[in-house]
């Protein structure tokens, strides 16, 4: 069931607004979820864990980026952000801290990307994703949902077609889909499962290549 738009949730005197970008799958923008100070604090925590970060890349492969994991409980300065993140997800803060995965912080350098993928599987039914933009690149780095707006269920053939299209750099001319330009402090919230509880291929998404500068993002 989709939240009404705009949805306001007061948290320490601060209102959150969810803007509907897509209904199939449900995708929302949360403007100003993080302050500039919180963005930089998370980046600093991720840099401190760089020695334990995983890096995966490959020619025409899945991903070109660096990843670190940060727990929201690791810095008291992140407590207000944790409350707002829980609020956006419709959870109690205690539930978010107890059950959510560690926050994955990703740095994309110039040329960095993440190929079309889904966040849920039959073995890992991740209900929702909250993607927070910590630092925006000079150009590129959009989050693309190539099958957003597809009527009914998307097929595996459509998923593979979207992946090939984005790899060729030809997706920009497609008539459907959604592309969101990163803005530091904003977040995207989307749902990965259909009403039947199975992964919804329409939620497949990609981090398009960074054109200039670097992009930092974190997801819960």
Automatic annotation (TrEMBL):
The family database entries (InterPro entries) matched by this protein are listed as: Oxoglu/Fe-dep_dioxygenase_dom (IPR005123), P4HA-like (IPR045054), Pro_4_hyd_alph (IPR006620), Pro_4_hyd_alph_FE2OG_OXY (IPR044862)
Which GO molecular function, any one, fits this protein according to its record? L-ascorbic acid binding
What GO CC terms are in its UniProt record? endoplasmic reticulum
Pfam families per record? 2OG-FeII_Oxy_3
Q: Which Gene3D superfamilies match?
A: q2cbj1_9rhob like domain
Keyword hit for Cell membrane: no
Q: Which cofactor does it need?
A: L-ascorbate
This protein's UniProt keywords: Dioxygenase, Iron, Metal-binding, Oxidoreductase
Q: Fe2OG dioxygenase domain location, by residue?
A: 99-220
List the protein's name.
Fe2OG dioxygenase domain-containing protein
């Amino acid at each position: 069931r989709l939240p009404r738009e705009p949805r306001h949730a007061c948290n320490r005197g601060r209102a959150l607004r969810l803007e509907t970008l897509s209904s199939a799958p449900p995708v929302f923008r949360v403007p100003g979820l993080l302050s500039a100070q919180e963005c930089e604090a998370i980046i600093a925590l991720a840099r401190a864990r760089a020695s334990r970060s995983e890096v995966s890349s490959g020619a025409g492969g899945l991903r070109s980026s660096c990843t670190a994991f940060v727990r929201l409980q690791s810095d008291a300065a992140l407590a207000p952000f944790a409350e707002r993140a829980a609020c956006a997800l419709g959870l109690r803060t205690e539930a978010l801290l107890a059950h959510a995965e560690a926050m994955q912080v990703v740095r994309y350098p110039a040329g960095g990307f993440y190929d079309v993928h889904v966040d849920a599987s039959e073995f890992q039914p991740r209900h929702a994703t909250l993607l927070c933009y910590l630092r925006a690149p000079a150009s590129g780095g959009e989050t693309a949902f190539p099958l957003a707006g597809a009527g009914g269920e998307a097929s595996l053939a459509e998923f593979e077609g979207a992946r090939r299209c984005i790899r060729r750099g030809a997706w920009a001319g497609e008539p459907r889909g959604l592309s969101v330009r990163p803005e530091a402090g904003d977040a995207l919230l989307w749902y990965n499962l259909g009403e039947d509880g199975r992964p919804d291929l329409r939620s497949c998404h990609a981090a398009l290549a960074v054109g200039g500068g670097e992009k930092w993002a974190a997801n819960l």
